Amino acid sequence: MTRSATTSIDLNADLGEGFGHWRLTDDEQLLSVVTSANVACGFHAGDPAIMRRVCTLAAERGVRIGAQVSYRDLAGFGRRAMDVPSAELAAEVAYQIGALEIFARAAGSRVSYVKPHGALYNRVVHDEEQAAAVVEGVLLADARLPVLGLPGSRLLAAAERAGLPVVTEAFADRAYTSDATLVPRGRDGAVVSDPDAVVARAVSMALDGSVVAEYGERVAVGAGSLCLHGDTPGAVDLARRVRSALEAAGVEVAAFS
Predict the structure, then answer these.
(1) What radius of gyration, in Å, describes the C-alpha atoms of the chain?
(2) Domains in the chain, ordered, with CATH?
(3) Is the CB of residue 26 less than 8 Å from the CB of residue 14?
(4) CB-CB contact of 252 with 7 (8 Å)
């Protein structure tokens, strides 16, 4: 399922990012725009009630449900670097997928893919051991699940070796380095905040399979799925603009197959 420039692309967003009375993402509105929902599974955000609600809403709208697995880090929103033993990480990944699957099935749907979140997502770009642990966890849960990740990452390589389907992903609202990885969030300019720039980058990623990196160089970021962060201010309006621009450019917005 790895693709470069394409006339069809999946649009995903991180959803269910809340806990108890606290809500970060506008799940209901975003689910009217995206084709895939990365649902927080309780380790960086989310709780059973939120997971159930998002799965129900996604199923009603025909949006694909994905398990967004994370390090166990509620206080740091899953964005803090952690050293978790491989066996423990594999078990925690499987646990998160299994928890979400209960609510997805209750809603008449299922978990259709897995995507790491935050620090774990960035770690498995380069870390072979942690990438293998994530893949082991996916295999424990369901050996048919596609894995969503950065092109060229250790994660996708490990998933392919294990026989799992892979889907490459690009980020319209994140800055890229010259080696086509994400600029760390602690650096200035890591998040692209100009809505016009985000829209233009999304169209370029879908049509050309490339984007301008942090120092002006153009890098390849061929992707089958395009991510917009649900916790970005104005995320719903931005997602609508991105989808409209993609469709106006002749790009079909549809779940990956």
Answers:
(1) 17
(2) 8-253 (3.20.20.370)
(3) no
(4) yes
From CA 207, how far away is CA 6, in angstroms rounded?
6
Using alpha carbons, list the distances in angstroms from residue 235 to 70, 87, 95, 210: 22, 36, 29, 23
63-102 pLDDT, tens digit per residue, is 999 999 999 999 999 999 999 999 999 999 999 999 999 9
Q: What are phi and psi of 118, to 5 degrees?
A: 55, -125
> How many Å apart are CA 39 and CA 121, to the nearest integer?
14
Instruction: Write the DSSP symbol of residue 174.
Output: B
What stretches of the chain show up as alpha helix (H) in DSSP?
27-30, 48-61, 86-106, 118-126, 128-141, 154-161, 195-208, 235-248
Task: Give 157's contacts (C-beta < 8 A, 6+ positions apart).
Answer: 131
C-beta of residue 34 within 8 angstroms of C-beta of residue 12: yes
Report the alpha-carbon distance of residue 127 to residue 233 in Å, rounded: 31
